[in-house]
Description:
alpha+beta, four-stranded mixed β-sheet, 9% strand, globular
Amino acid sequence: MYTLFYYPQSASLAPHILLELIGEPYQLELVDIKKNANRSAQYLKLSPAGQVPALVDDDFTLFESAAISQYLAEKHTDKQLIPTELKLKSQCLQWMHFMSASIHSDLLMYTYPERHTQSALMYDDLIRSQQGRLEEGFGIIDTLLADNHYLFANQFTLCDSYLFMLCERAKTFLEKTPSLKNLRRYYRQIAATPAISKALEMAEL
């Protein structure tokens, strides 16, 4: 049985959605970041940097949301959450890496400026700079969604579980950025699907 170590409003939502779609038995283990449970010796054995999520699959352990998502999608190819043809798979993973390395990183700096400077005087400057970067990064995705219901291959893939996680964490940003109308439509559409609704409900504290 899979065990997903999670925290609400974190990157654990992306693999959690995939677990719901896959339909195999799994359990959730809360890592209470507010109580520094992610820094416990026990959890650091699973995720050396103390980051959430982590996944345990019998005797196999993995951390990093994007890596866990790819592992689950590739293990359950019958669910068609990742293409099997090499070029299509590479393009799919291209968008995963872009979202993980660029948009997610910018979103974390925008949301938690205090983690990136020792001076409170710099918070507003950091937020403003990340605002522009987020609008640019999300804008690339928004353009792709102009004529598509899903991010890649016109079907729900691991890219969509990851993108929905980003949208969920950036809801306020999306609402106050007029140019991202396709992403707002996408978020509302995807949020209504049963697997995502259930994952959101289960992940609440």
